Amino acid sequence: QTNYLKNAALHLVDLKKTAPHIIDQSSFLILLEALYHANKLPTLLSQFIDKEIPSKYKTIDVYNILIKSYCQYDIDNVIDIVIDKIMKKQKVQATCKSYNLIINAHLKNDNLKKEKQILKIVIKRKVNVDDFTFAPFLSYAKKSNDINLFNQYLNLFEQMNVPKTSFIKKLENQMLAKL
Questions:
Q1: Residue 141: CB partners within 8 Å, gap ≥ 6?
Q2: Contact (CB, 8 A) for 172 and 140
Q3: How far apart are CA 24 and CA 146, in angstroms?
Q4: CB-based contacts of 125: which residues, under 8 Å, 6+ apart?
Q5: Which pLDDT tens digit goes with each residue over 150-168?
Q6: The dihedral sign for the CA sequence 58, 61, 62, 68
Q7: 2-18 and 42-52 helices cross at what angle (nearest 10)?
Q8: Rounded to two decimals, what is the model's pTM?
């Protein structure tokens, strides 16, 4: 698998030189996803993005793949390294999905304290959030049977004008049923 990916990367780099009109953004996204799934270190992905991907293709989708990679190897520094340095340098704005990737990575590690810190950053930076941003927090409160914590998150969710999806309504009904 590694040789295949290496050959694909080399082929893409060659195509970029010989027939750049053939390559589009989706080519780079597919390759980056493949490199990510091959567990390539985020620093290697970052170097590849820097050197091989033309500026016009350096979109949020490219950087979200890099965020996923950093979440595997250096989760505590992903905001500092990817969002505040690399993306800022490229003038690419992090989206709700970018932060959701980080929150969910912390959720997998059961690190609610860090998730809360990220939520504070999201609120401070006025990122438009969605139900996927709050779902991990509401799920945690439900799992721990903490109705007060659940209501705090739900109130914050409502203050930020995020529409309640069927998933959030289901969680809310399950918590109400416990009363």
A1: 147, 149, 150, 152, 153, 175
A2: no
A3: 49
A4: 94
A5: 888 888 888 888 888 888 8
A6: positive
A7: 20
A8: 0.75
